[in-house]
Amino acid sequence: MFDIRRFLPAVLLILHLHGWSQTSPFSMVPSYRIHPSDVTQTEVFIVQSPLDEDILFASCNTLTFIPFSVSEGIYVTTDGGVNWLGNDTCTGDPIAFHGGDPGITIDRNGTFILTRLGRAPFVGLYSHYSEDRGQTWSAQKVISTDDLERASLTTDVNPSSPHYGRTYAAWVKFALPYPLMVAYTDDGAKSWSVPAAINDPPNRSAGGDIVTGPNGEIYVCWAGVTATTPFREIYVGFAASVNGGDTWTVSENAFPMSGITGVLPEKDNIRVNGLPSLAVDTTGGPRHGWIYVVTGQKDLAPAGGDPDIILNRSADGGLTWSEGIRVNQDPLNNGKIQYFPAIEVDKDGAVNIIYYDDRNTTEDSATVWFSRSTDGGNTWTEFELSDHHFRPTPIGGLGQGYQGDNIDLTSTATELWPVWMDNSSGIYQVWSRPVKFSDISGSEEHQPGAASGILEQNYPNPFSGETRIGFRVENSGKVTLTVIDPMGREVARPVNGFFSAGRHEVILGRTNPGGNSALRPGIYFYRICIGGRTETRKMAVTGE
Questions:
Q1: Residues in CB range of 410: below 8 A, 6 or more apart
Q2: Parallel, antiparallel or unpaired: strands 218-225 and 233-241
Q3: Residue 414 and residue 441: Cα distance in Å, rounded?
Q4: Do residues 224 and 204 lie in contact, with contact meaning Cβ atoms separated by under 8 Å?
Q5: Cα–Cα distance between 230 and 520 in angstroms, integer?
Q6: How many CA atoms lie within 13 A of 49 on its CB side?
Q7: The Cα angle at residue 530 between residues 539 and 279, in degrees rounded to 5
Q8: Which of left, alpha, beta for 453 (phi over 0: left; psi -120 to 50: alpha)?
Q9: HEC profile for 476-498?
Q10: For residue 182, how many other CB atoms are within 10 A of its CB?
Q11: Torsion over CA of 398, 401, 402 and 406, rounded to 10 degrees?
Q12: 112 - beta bridge partners?
């Protein structure tokens, strides 16, 4: 690491107190369990009703061991999260043969739809529906009797779409060549179309996800995996349909990836994956129609040698894709681990991603972080979302390292709703901590010359001699500001100390008194860390 006293002695700290302070986001809302119980809850999902944003429906795998049983949790709020009702068992017949792995949605009529796996003799994919907000459930309806992976669901809620109200399910069939399968219902899961394979993959598919686009398009993605254990993800496949799923345009290898499938020795050998999650902007804003895919990767730039969260995006309906964008802003190759991302594009077109992260914990522990981009993924604001840490550990008797394979995120007009599982209560339970957009917008208020968040854009930019970097401290504490080159190496640390609340500014000089260049012409990043929150901006250095 370079010592700023040697290489950048022109750095000056100018402490401008403007009398401006900001309440930290989430500070008034503690993390909480949405349905405390003595039943193990894991692999959680959450959706919002298209009819009433105060209605949220969450589900998960629920497990009891004596006697052993598997079901799907049914957790519902009708008042925007003030109260949650429900239970740890989906009551649709036959209750004794539920196999968990739920997929959930709420259709245009407010019907709750749940798909799940079946247990022998009912192997396959089955659905239930509820027309009373989850209080009672229909008997099972068969979708497929194949051996298969959990299904993902989406509903077309665009009234101008030719397939308005149609609900789609996508899953991977466990038989050669392991294709991605799709079926749909037009009557609230009372009946389903005959499942159809949309690809003939050269590598086995894994982990399908599905969303509907702004004009009724259907987008699906999956991972192509290696032929041998641990079946590591090596590329992301993508397909689109503009006619309700009748035909598909398929790209078996839309872009490369290097997934993290395997176990994490640091975390008691829990099993993890890098499977892709999918979201699309339907806001009508400047990035209307953009498609985003987020994965967990390592050993392929921009990911480092430890697991990172990587975003790829498409602005042309999936025909072409960007290079990977590293979402988590901690230093590259710092030994910290990020995994299980979930993604949501909110009402303003911002990209929101949650994931497990251990940058502020010991290596055997984890917490949940939240990253948000208001410019399509170019820059990110980060927060430590959960207000406590937990120690991941496998759930005994459920296969090597199993602790659940995903977390989830949805949004309303006023809030983001993340859900995750952790075992801090003694067993794995579903936790949440809603994020009000008013809190986020408060932390992103603009000062003159400032970008959103606590870290301002440097000015001038580009610069050849010196530049000013402003930042805001909400509560007095330690502040670190580092300068990083495009390879992720720290080249300077102009700020590393305690600051009082308010606005501060640092002057960053390019050269030392001897005239030798400490920062060569090119692109750099500067990153601030205040408490558990980090932000990163880009700057350019020019020649003389």
A1: 46, 47, 48, 56, 344, 416, 417
A2: antiparallel
A3: 11
A4: yes
A5: 43
A6: 21
A7: 70
A8: left
A9: CEEEEEEEECCCCCEEEEEEEEE
A10: 23
A11: -170
A12: 106, 130
The residue among 370, 358, 298, 292 whose CA lies nearest residue 332 is 298
Residue in this structure with the two tokens 């008034």, named with its chain if needed? 28
Rounded Cα distance between 505 and 289, Å, is 38
HSE of 110 in the Cβ direction (CA atoms, 13 Å)?
11
CA 202, CA 343: separation in Å to the nearest integer?
28
CA distance 387 to 434: 12
Higher pLDDT pick, 400 / 199: 199
CA atoms of 48 and 57, how far apart (whole Å): 6
CA dihedral 489, 295, 45, 266 (to 10 degrees): -60
Q: Where are the domains of the chain?
A: 4-22+446-541, 40-443
Q: What is the pTM of this model?
A: 0.79
ω before 302 within 30° of 0 (cis)?
yes
Type of residue numbered 438: S
pLDDT value at position 445? 36
State the DSSP code for 475.
S
Q: Which CATH architecture has domain 4-22+446-541?
A: Sandwich (2.60)
CATH 2.40.128.50 corresponds to the domain 40-443: no
The count of residues in the chain is 544
**What pLDDT, on the 0 to 100 scale, is given for residue 463?**
85
Question: What is the token pair recorded at 121?
Answer: 């003799």
Tokens found for residue 126: 């089955």
Show the tokens assigned to 21.
Answer: 């302070």
| Gap between the Cα atoms of 507 and 485, Å rounded | 18
For residue 348, CA distances in Å to 272, 344, 376, 410, 544 come to 32, 11, 11, 13, 41
Candidate from 26-30, 131-135, 332-336 with smallest mean pLDDT: 26-30
**DSSP reduced 3-state for 266:** helix
Q: Are 84 and 110 in contact (CB under 8 A)?
A: no
How far is residue 300's CA from residue 285's CA, in Å, rounded to a whole number? 32
Angle at 362 between CA 357 and CA 365, to 5 degrees: 55
Residue 269, token pair as written in the block: 């050998």
pLDDT at 501 over 90: no
Cα–Cα distance for residue pair 539/521, rounded to 1 Å: 11
Condensed to tens digits (0 to 9), the pLDDT of residues 397-433 reads 777 899 999 999 999 989 999 999 999 999 999 999 9
Residue listed under structure tokens 């102009």 = 494
Question: Alpha-carbon distance 307 to 334, whole Å?
Answer: 10
- Cα(153)–Cα(163) distance, integer angstroms: 15
Buried b (16+ CB within 10 A) or exposed e, 300-330: eebbbebbbbbbbbbbebbeebbebbbbbbb
Structure tokens at 15: 């402490």
